Amino acid sequence: MGVWSSGASYDIYVGRWSRLVAADFVRWLDRPPGARWLDVGSGTGALTEAVLSAAAPTDVVGVDPSADFVAHAAGVIPDPRARFGVGDARALPVVDGSFDVAVSGLTLNFVAERTAVLGELRRAVGPGGTVAAYVWDYPDGMQLMAAYWDAALDLGLAEPTMHEAVRFGFCRRAALQAVFVTAGLTGVDTTPIVVPTAFRDFDDFWSPFLGGTGPAPAHLAALPADQQETLRDAVRDRLPVADDGSVALTARAWAVRGTAP
């Protein structure tokens, strides 16, 4: 199974937490009703759903490079205001200035050409339009992933550069603000969004890692069975398991927005 081959597995792993962040993100943007929204890297539709629920848009167009994710989003979001298509964030299949708001959730850290991608979002909205994004705070605020990678490194089962805190070290407030400014956006602003990631027990925490979708689950799937078991036990030892077996963590994202001049 590929890193991004299953929309259902992604939703169970991290998409459910993205939905909580997306709702706060849309409220923070506070765009007027009747706007046209573009969701770049729309994934399984978490951000599109939040826009439809809270922003009263005219329509929302989602673009993602994964055909599986596009099909999943289209299947779970029947709202006629939403439509999804496969596309590249570096060359969006949209007309200049055809949207009022262009957003991207949990995508910027996965692209090398961030300034170019933001330039495409800027092109999509035209002068006065809003461009905004959010990413997980991998270096300091994504506890469920840190527990996995910290254990994998301690056991010698991963290279240090595989740790998402290292691989996605860009995901910090100052770096996000800087790339938006470099892309020519004005009035750039950032804010943290923190959501609870609560699990009934350790199995509820661990089972999403078995789906193969996402960097950590894909890494786990590539390990031999005995190493998977050793890693599972090491991760369990790192977690704050309550007397009733539950695991209460938090996930922090950084949100950033700017205006196209």
TrEMBL record:
Pfam families: Methyltransf_11 (PF08241). InterPro entries: Methyltransf_11 (IPR013216), Methyltransf_Superfamily (IPR050508), SAM-dependent_MTases_sf (IPR029063). SUPFAM superfamilies: S-adenosyl-L-methionine-dependent methyltransferases. Keywords: Methyltransferase, Transferase. The keyword Methyltransferase applies. GO terms for molecular function: S-adenosylmethionine-dependent methyltransferase activity. GO terms for biological process: methylation. It comes from Blastococcus haudaquaticus. This is Methyltransferase domain-containing protein. PANTHER family: METHYLTRANSFERASE. Residues 38-132 form the Methyltransferase type domain.
